[in-house]
């Protein structure tokens, strides 16, 4: 059985529903059910936060070290410099995520427009 063996018009939509929506939403529903019973300082929630933070850090590191698209045309120094400047702005200007993101974006876009 292959993807092309089913020719009905509804097949791709059913596949998206079963393979994309259902597996992720089940975990969301379980999280809502269990989330109300978990204390904020519990070990389980600390582990979940640590794993989520590690995943975000991994994605950012991958974007900086192994970029694709137009970001791949920039130098690694520019990408690392924008990340460091954004983090420094985050720390120095009230620990607001939007400030860090905007500073990093301005530096990155400026460097890309100057072909740095």
From TrEMBL:
InterPro entries: Brnchd-chn_aa_trnsp_AzlD. The keyword Transmembrane helix applies. The keyword Endoplasmic reticulum does not apply. Pfam families: AzlD. The chain crosses the membrane at residues 12-34, 46-65, 71-90, 97-114. Keywords: Membrane, Transmembrane, Transmembrane helix. It comes from the Bacteria. This is Branched-chain amino acid transport. It comes from Phyllobacterium brassicacearum. The lineage of its organism: Bacteria, Pseudomonadati, Pseudomonadota, Alphaproteobacteria, Hyphomicrobiales.
